[in-house]
Description:
This protein is an alpha/beta fold. The protein has twelve helices and 20 strands.
Amino acid sequence: MSLIVQKYGGTSVGSxxxxxxxxxRVKRWRDKGNNVVVVVSAMSGETNRLIELINATNPTGTARxxxxxxxxxxxxxxxxxxxxxxxxxxxxxSYTGSQANIRxxxxxxxxxxxxxxxxxxxxDLEKGYVLVVAGFQGVDNExxxxxxxxxxxxxxxxxxxxxxxADECQIYTDVxxxxxxxxxxxxxxxxxxxxxxxxxxxxASQGSKVLQIRAVEFAYKYNxxxxxxxxxxEGDDGKSTLVTREEDIMEEVLVRGVAFNRDEAQLTVEGVPxxxxxxxxxxxxxxxxxxxxDMIVQxxxxxxxxxxxxxxxxxxxxxxxxxxCETGKTLGAKACRGDDxxxxxxxxxxxxxxxxxxxxxxxTALADEGINIRMxxxxxxxxxxxxxxxxxxxxxxxxxxxxxLDTV
Length: 408
Ligand code: ADP
Ligand code: ASP
Ligand code: MG
């Protein structure tokens, strides 16, 4: 008997009718003789609604209480899906994150899973129940409810698949797999039937929200293949994407896809002394405030002075700018400024390791469209650029075409 972990995202469970459809699909898998564990998200829009409620009540309130509120969306869906399964004679039992004993650290709103006590659920699995587990939530050592960050149900699913040694981890969403870029932005993006976990990790970390980055990290670490499929397909044999170990992928492509991210903001401090300790002063103050920095660029020094530019998450922009301007003052900086209307576009592909010229082709394609590049960063398998946000769609389409991704 195989054990399948399935995850259904917000749009897949967005209404009672959609939940009934999911129930029918789950029952089909169960009736084929599989043990099935289902992870669900909150109904679409629900987590945003809860965030609005929090912001309308006390936006600067305690993170612990916010997670108590945020975790309720998933609790509704596990109950509804269990009832829907029951109504079609498929025995099911719901589990909240804490009932499933999904243990996390205590970093509220972005907690990391530290372990799962799989035996909590073993009895019910052996009795043949379908287990319906709330995604996006866990419990810390002191019994506090925690949440795993936006998109976190993907991570719950992969972590459960690893803990239960599942045969397959299926992520059902509103697209039938991973595409060469977001099909909402480029309508002729190509479907990718099979791709490497490392490439997916890079795509996710550069902004492709089809899978949460931590889910891919987990899958990569524990070598758990993920299959991405659509819950809107009629049958069970539609298109999908298998994200698996690179060794299992025969061909290596130069550029696999284009990812983008409009969640960042850029900060610059101008005219600081070009001497040891300055970078650590500037970034130390930012990291002391628990703000993560992504790209960093330091200009060539001019008459002993230099400029320092970096990016942070847009949510941290105001706080980071305040800290930077204060640190800048103590360092005698000429100015400090920022811009939160930027976008980061990245091309990702395992083949870049062994091929030169990809970055220059990228820069030429953008220049031909008159798109100015503000920052650049590279890794073994990606090149990222920061541009004005207004160029985001044009830049994504341009790069998709330049690397002929519509014809793969
Ligand atoms: P769910 O609610 O099921 O978790 P998400 O909205 O989190 O769904 O993720 C699915 C969405 O990811 C798609 O609707 C699509 O717009 C977006 N997306 C971004 N990049 C890609 C990509 N490369 N391939 C497929 N979908 C992508
Ligand atoms: N409901 C959460 C969110 O909207 C978690 C998830 O959907 O994965 O981010
Ligand atoms: Mg998601």
